[in-house]
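Worked example 2:
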Amino acid sequence: MEFVFPMSGRLLAATGHVHDQREAVRLEDAETGRVLIRLRADRSADGTVRGMTRRRLAWWGRGLKIQAGRRYRVVGVYNNVTTDTARHAMAHLVGIFAPDDMRQWLPVDYEDPLYVADLARYRVGARPEQHAHRHTP
């Protein structure tokens, strides 16, 4: 999957999610093919995924520089060790992103149907005032 970041910033941490028979997920610079991050799956001998590695990219540094308008690619690395056809051949890369300029960050559209549906699914209020912590005596 290829995508473009709408603003520049830094990727501070990353992890992934893969289904069984995947070995890894990686982030590449789609324009150069350079691998920027590779996250490996912890797999058993039969290919069952038990977990994923995590990378703290800003632990001692500033994180991975991401450029606005540049194409990036997420790649799932697959290695099926069984004779069965893969049922779930997908991979996700998840990260914490800090924009260089927070003024470029778009405000939340509280009326967006996808936003409202996501919050309803988890029974969370759609507006900030609905997220207030409730304390019981």
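The mean pLDDT is 82. The helical segments are 113-121.
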